[in-house]
Write a structure and sequence with these properties.
disordered C terminus; eight-stranded parallel sheet; elongated; alpha/beta; 16-stranded mixed sheet
């Protein structure tokens, strides 16, 4: 049984670390592995007994094989103290500086690790995060004798620890040979003829993950050193990501996705700037690719094709600019999806399926937006979305609540034949051109309260709703309210304040 959490991307934020601890609490006692270990508690985190456990684990994580490490959590490793399956004991916290002064002299300055505290079930949990091992890393060894509380040497200086599956053990001869190979200097890339790129691209078809990942790393460096070759590099990265799952390239695919993320966003897994920065306006073709926990939080893209791609885990796209068409048609998003503050030249999500909640809020689409035949199995939010051209939301299925509150449609808006099984919120929406809700069905309430239209063009509204033209704008209201207003039995239902753009509020009979 594996941990019940996606572990293809690192865990950094307090909420992510909390989710990781919760997964440990729900885990099987045999779920520890090369990237994660836990202990129910340790007395006195800065004392000799705790030091023995912590130092061994940190050194063992630091001495992992880089390619094996990349299979989980982006290569990071996690040691959790105070939680185990079905039990939360907690720890007595000590200051981070005290912990670093206690452990630092034993693990050495080249091992990169960070202590964090989180709370679960009202108790403090220590999480030590160890950075990914890299090619060229030295062999990390014990810098001082580890002694118990009685002063007896438990592990002598220069001892080397490694992770063997779920345990931290002393390195044997074969382990030392592997670590010596890892520590060999990485040959810098100095030449960039196209034939070098072609040779590296052919290596991506290798059955050896080490060969594939090393070739990807060199290709990335070529793109950094020679901007004119960046598109060629990305083309090869995308080609690997399009490789079918049965081709046995799981490790290389994860490495390739990390390369693509760095070069599109200019950020690493910790959202810190990377050498070489972002490669702007790169075209990407990820047709049929499988992407795991995609997290793009900046940058710009040229032509982008994701047709029939599968997005596993959570998908976060924010602050990104798609300068040409973005084709997401036929995609499957099986986790929480957030596309926020993103700008599209045009986008096509037709036939896509969102299996969990999704958010498209505060994004902008300059050209056509096509969501025909899309299915939303969780909640869907298009709040404050701006669409400057035709928007096609025909034949949609919303299984749960949906909202377009505050969205603005500058072009024609079509929702024909769509089905809403939950509450559908179109309040405060601005429509500037044709509005069409022909043959829309809804099991829950569909509300257009305080929505406003700015055109006298055709408007086919859901049953029970109508528009009232006055001047250059109309307010959308319930037909029953309009009838009562006409009979003088009810005060006018005030519409959107947007009507102030064209008429005085006090002169409008229906506002």
């Amino acid at each position: 049984m594996a941990l019940s959490i996606y572990a293809s991307s690192p865990f950094f934020t307090p909420s992510q670390l909390h989710d990781l601890a919760a997964a440990v609490l729900d885990a099987n006692v045999h779920d520890e592995s090369i990237w994660i270990e836990w202990k129910k508690t340790l007395d006195d985190l800065s004392g000799p007994s705790a030091r023995i456990h912590l130092v061994k684990a940190i050194l063992g994580f630091a001495n992992r094989d880089p390619y094996l490490a990349m299979r989980r959590a982006g290569g990071f490793a996690y040691l959790l103290i105070g939680v185990e399956p079905e039990n939360v004991r907690g720890v007595t916290t000590v200051d981070h500086n005290v912990l670093e002064q206690s452990l630092g002299p034993y693990v050495g300055p080249q091992v990169r690790w960070t202590p964090e505290y989180i709370r679960i079930n009202g108790k403090n949990i220590l999480v030590i995060v160890v950075d990914p091992p890299q090619l060229g890393d030295p062999i990390h060894y014990l810098r001082k004798d580890l002694k118990d509380s009685k002063g007896k040497i438990v592990h002598a200086e220069h001892s080397v620890f490694i992770r063997r599956n779920a345990r931290t053990v002393k390195a044997n001869d074969s382990d030392m040979e592997r670590l010596q190979k890892r520590s060999a200097p990485v040959t810098p890339v100095v030449a960039t003829p196209y034939r070098d790129v072609d040779e590296l691209a052919s290596n991506l078809h290798s059955s050896e993950p080490a060969v594939q990942c090393n070739s990807l790393a060199i290709l990335e460096q070529i793109g950094i050193d020679h901007p004119s070759m960046q598109q060629l590099v990305i083309d090869n990265v995308c080609r690997l990501l399009r490789t079918p799952d049965d081709a046995g390239v799981v490790e290389a695919r994860e490495f390739a996705q990390a390369v693509l993320t760095r070069r599109l966003t200019g950020l690493d897994a910790k959202n810190e700037p990377v050498d070489g920065g972002a490669w702007g306006n790169i075209d990407i073709d990820l047709t049929g690719a499988r992407l795991i926990n995609l997290d793009w939080q900046a940058g710009s893209v040229g032509v982008s094709v994701f047709r029939n791609a599968e997005f596993l885990g959570d998908t976060h796209i924010s602050g990104l600019e798609f300068h040409h068409s973005a084709d997401f048609s036929g995609c499957t998003f099986n986790g929480y999806t957030a596309i926020v503050g993103t700008k599209f030249d045009s986008c096509d999500f037709s036939g896509s399926t969102f299996e969990d909640d999704c958010i498209f809020s505060k994004s902008e689409v300059d050209g056509m937006a096509n969501f025909t035949n899309a299915t939303f199995e969780g909640g869907a939010s298009f709040r404050s979305l701006t669409l400057r051209d035709t928007a096609i939301f025909k034949d949609l299925l919303f299984e749960m609540n949906s909202t377009f509150e505050g969205a603005e449609f500058h072009g024609d808006a079509y929702f024909d034949h769509s089905h809403f099984r939950g509450f559908a919120n179109f309040e405060h929406v601005k429509f500037h051109e044709v509005i069409s809700f022909r043959n829309v069905t809804s099991h829950g309430e569909l509300s257009l309260a305080r929505a406003c239209a700015f055109s006298h063009l055709r408007a086919d509204l859901p049953a029970g709703w109508a528009i009232n033209p006055y001047g250059s704008c109309v307010v959308i209201a319930r037909e029953t309210d309009i009838l009562e207003q006409d009979r003088g039995k009810k005060r006018p239902v005030f519409g959107s304040d947007h009507c102030r753009h064209c008429i005085k509020m006090e002169s409008c009979r229906y506002l």
